[in-house]
Amino acid sequence: MANERLGTDVIVQIGIIVKDIEKTAKDFAEFFGVDMPQIIVTEEYDKSHTQYKGKPTNARAKLAFFRNFKNVEIELIEPDENPSTWREFLETHGEGIHHIGVFVKNMDEKIENLKKEGIEVVQKGDYTGGRYAYMDSTDKLKFILELLENF
Amino acid sequence: MANERLGTDVIVQIGIIVKDIEKTAKDFAEFFGVDMPQIIVTEEYDKSHTQYKGKPTNARAKLAFFRNFKNVEIELIEPDENPSTWREFLETHGEGIHHIGVFVKNMDEKIENLKKEGIEVVQKGDYTGGRYAYMDSTDKLKFILELLENF
Question: Which residue numbers delimit the VOC domain (chains A, B) (predicted)?
């Protein structure tokens, strides 16, 4: 039973905003008994085309992925100082769980489906091999829904 | 590959603190195209034996469970005014994702494993057919880890 508006019924990712990704990734690796993952940095604007609240932003983030749970991946995110949903979350709520991510097909169509429910894109961008859109679902769902589409 | 300290590598639940569960459960049901779930209230102290920060508390919460994602259940939680991790989260962070839950066996043993890592129980209690313990994992993991054990 897929969730019709999203076309999926699987949560693939839980995203956590952190202040110090080196420290928290080390704590995670130690706690879960797994290797320290590589910490990557999102691309610069010319490749990421990041838009936050409808405007281009130079925001970047450090990311680390943990796959020690077999059914859901955990993503750690350390935002930089530029405007982004990541930075806004850190300043408003502090560290904690920022989003739930799902894979979709035909992202533009799914975004249109959500717009009809009054849920707009808050941030979107590209990464190597795919793209993402954070949806402004907080009023309704109390979490940010991330749409991910790999090509 | 089980996470050794927990004896599991599956996330079973994402718990979300809300202010008005009737409204948010209705929004969820509508958004995901599923039936409105029953809203239940946790047991009184004589059955729940709820302990928060090592002391008995009369705290109760309204709960609603969504199983529209097939790999992880979403729990909505509306705390009452009594001291609890739910209430504390709402007052500190506002509405949002409060915990990640896993099923464990031999909960006491798992709690001991976590204590050795400096992670103590912040709240625990009983429900019909099982028990739970919220672990004070926020410093290390940036989320509250909930241990669930059904009998």
Answer: 10-150
**Token pair for A41:** 């940095």
Nearest chain A Cα distance for residue B109, angstroms: 16
What ipTM does the predicted assembly reach? 0.95
- Say which CATH number the domain at A82 has: 3.10.180.10
E strand or H helix at A62: strand A61-66
pTM for the full predicted model: 0.96
Question: Quick check: B72 and A96 CB within 8 A?
Answer: no
Count of domains forming chain A: 1
In a domain, B1, yes or no: no
Of B10, B70, B142, the CB nearest to A69: B10
Distance from CA of A64 to the nearest CA of B (A): 13
Question: What is chain A's mean pLDDT, rounded?
Answer: 96
Locate tokens 């610069």: which residue? A44
**Contact status of A4 with chain B (Cβ, < 8 Å):** yes
* Domain hosting residue A131, numbered range: 13-150
Q: Quick check: A95 contacting B, CB < 8 Å?
A: yes
- pLDDT band at B3, cuts 50/70/90? confident
CA distance B88 to B106: 28
Q: Which amino acid belongs to residue B35? A: D
Our CA-based measurement puts residue A46 at a distance from the nearest CA of chain B, in whole angstroms, of 32
| Residue at A51 is within a domain | yes
Q: Is residue B35 part of a domain?
A: yes
Report the pLDDT value the prediction gives residue B17, as an integer from 0 to 100: 98
A3 found inside a domain: no
B75 CB neighbour count, 10 Å cutoff = 19
- Write down the pLDDT at residue B1: 52
**Whether pLDDT at B4 is above 90:** no
* B53-72: pLDDT as tens digits: 999 999 999 999 999 999 99
- Record: contact B31-A100, CB cut-off 8 A: no
Sequence letter at residue B49: H
Contact check, Cβ <8 Å, B69/A1: no
